[in-house]
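Hi team, as promised in this morning's meeting, here are the two structures we talked about. I've kept the exact order from the run log so nobody has to guess. The first one is mostly here for context; it's the second one we should focus on when we meet again. Sequence first, then the predicted structure tokens.
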Amino acid sequence: MNEKRRLKIGIDYHGVIDRDPDYFREFSRELIRRGHEVHVVTGGPCGTVTETLRKLRFCYTQSFAVLDHYEAEGLVKHETDGGFRVADELWNSAKAEYCRAQGIDLHIDDSLEYLRYFVTPYCRYDERTHRCTLNDEPCLDFNLAPKQVVAHLEKIFSK
């Protein structure tokens, strides 16, 4: 009997999950229910995002926050107004590096800025249409039920 491949899916928080938290909560639950991993990948800060996800009862297997990652490396410059600064190149490439290092099969994000750093397949989410494109081709339709989208993902990655 063929065993289904375990997928690792990255989902951005700001611009994806936070735009339709009810839908993405069910999408994430379905992925995990079927034995896949869900990585919430965010700019951060981790504590704030984690608390929001907890309140939403959002299931995921791992999380990564760019701000916390660079804070731990001492690369965040804190401003007197409470803001912070990380070099653009570092910030813009961090999600791509995380996804590559973790073996993420597909990352879902809304930003065009990060796309150029990714070797991991990057599905760009459009909040207006609730669809994702991969290499300018339609990839996922989040107007469909989460079970259908997960089944479509499994089909894509079983090839």
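And here is the second protein, the one for discussion:
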Amino acid sequence: MTFMAKVVSVVAGVVTHAGRILIGQRKRNDWHGLKWEFPGGKIEPGEAPEDALARELREELGIEAIIGDVLQRYQFSYNQRPPVELVFYNVTNFTGVPVNYEFEQILWAEAASLTDYDFLDGDREFIEWLSARNKA
């Protein structure tokens, strides 16, 4: 008998300010330590994806965010692990000043420079899409 692994859904926010995108670096002792990522996290049972992202941004950065449209959605598998569904949202607005509560560091990066950072493998497809979109 074969069991299908449950796909874990993860939401990530593209938070922009003054033409830059907010990214965070995972803590050095975390899984994939010191890799860069977009802020966000796992959806809890019964939670709507947009609500999960707003909660994660509040917990990780102390901001209240307005979640916009889905920019990209796809599945990615890390090694032999079950696939993760990654859903990237446009954060259309936020209040508050981002404070680093969860990361090694956070910074505002130019969209064109995102490929210069050592991102999680799962984020690379999105970064390529975002780079192509910004060149158009």
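Starting points for discussion:
The chain is about 20% helix and 40% strand.
The chain has one domain: 8-135.
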